[in-house]
Amino acid sequence: MIKAVLFDMDGVLIDARDWHYEALNRALGLLGYEITRYEHLSAYDGLPTGRKLEMLSVEHGLPRELHSFLNGLKQQYTLEFVATRCKPVFQHQYMLARLAQAGYALGVASNSVRRTVEEMMERSDLARYLDVMVSNQDVSRGKPDPEIYVKAMSMLDVAPEQTLIVEDNENGIKAATAAGAHVLVVEDPGDVNLERVTTRIAAVEGSVVA
User: Fold this and answer.
1) Which residues lie across from 164 on neighbouring strands?
2) InterPro entries from the entry (predicted)?
3) pTM, whole model, 2 decimals?
């Protein structure tokens, strides 16, 4: 029986994948570096910024002593985008409200830093429905490692077989699968609604969810 539903944030509850891409490239551009759209979609999407910077050092020679500066600048630019672009989406508010009303424990587990997670969830008016919010700063290894989902399930006191995770990209799907939970794969935030989630729960449980 499913007792908890965990959501990735970027690309699932918030249409923010391009915000992270634009913010990091804006910071990198000051030093003459860039992540192409192809690289973003094929290799970097869904990874923590620190992991992306390490990949840039290995693949493109980005000096590691610049990581801290670039990471801080990227987070600043991301928050600027959040302040102007992040707004409530009714289908997500309705979905979380109904799931909470039905007694499911709810959470977000994101490779973003905690301040970004909290800011996005507040501005999208979703924070009030969530029992836990886990960021990449709460774990030692971000997705695709399963640690972030294992931690969220532990905080909710649910087993993997009692948990449905909603994910959109390869790294997140790997993390959710490795954590042992049931997974609902979506294309983008427009795919995420009450019907999709309850249908997947029903399929897992083998019965109709009221």
Assistant:
1) 5, 182
2) Beta-PGM-like (IPR051600), HAD-like_sf (IPR036412), HAD-SF_hydro_IA (IPR006439), HAD_2 (IPR041492), HAD_sf (IPR023214), PGP-like_dom2 (IPR023198)
3) 0.86
